[in-house]
Amino acid sequence: xxxxxxxADESDTASGEGLLAQRLASARELLRGLLDIExxxxxxxxxLPTLYLIGIGxxxxxxxxxxxxxxAQSTGLGLMRLLLVGPVAFVVLVILLRVALELxxxxxxxxxxxxxxxxxxxxxxxxxxxxxxxxxxxxxxx
Length: 142
Fold this sequence. Notes:
Layout: H1 7-34, H2 44-73, H3 75-127
Helix pairs in contact: 2-3
């Protein structure tokens, strides 16, 4: 009994291959950006989602380690850290991380806008006539 190919299966395979190719291209671009020693490309804005996920994981690990340390001292302290202090600390750490990363992206956006404005200012200045605010001195013999 032969099975006829399903067109949906082919599109899933094609989209899967396309996604893989896209991720490989993204990884190559990331590596190229990391090796750019002249800093021609800004890499940090593209890395922010990954940094956020790493930060969330690190916050969860820190809270669990804090709770485990509490359990090593006593069960009551461990439960208090796990159920009361831990969730509050996790939320506070993630909020602080988010604020720091949003500050970072805001700085990059400000830098891009300042570069745009500088380009516009140069264009405007090139179109203006030059005005000299002083007269050159004449020689006495003339």
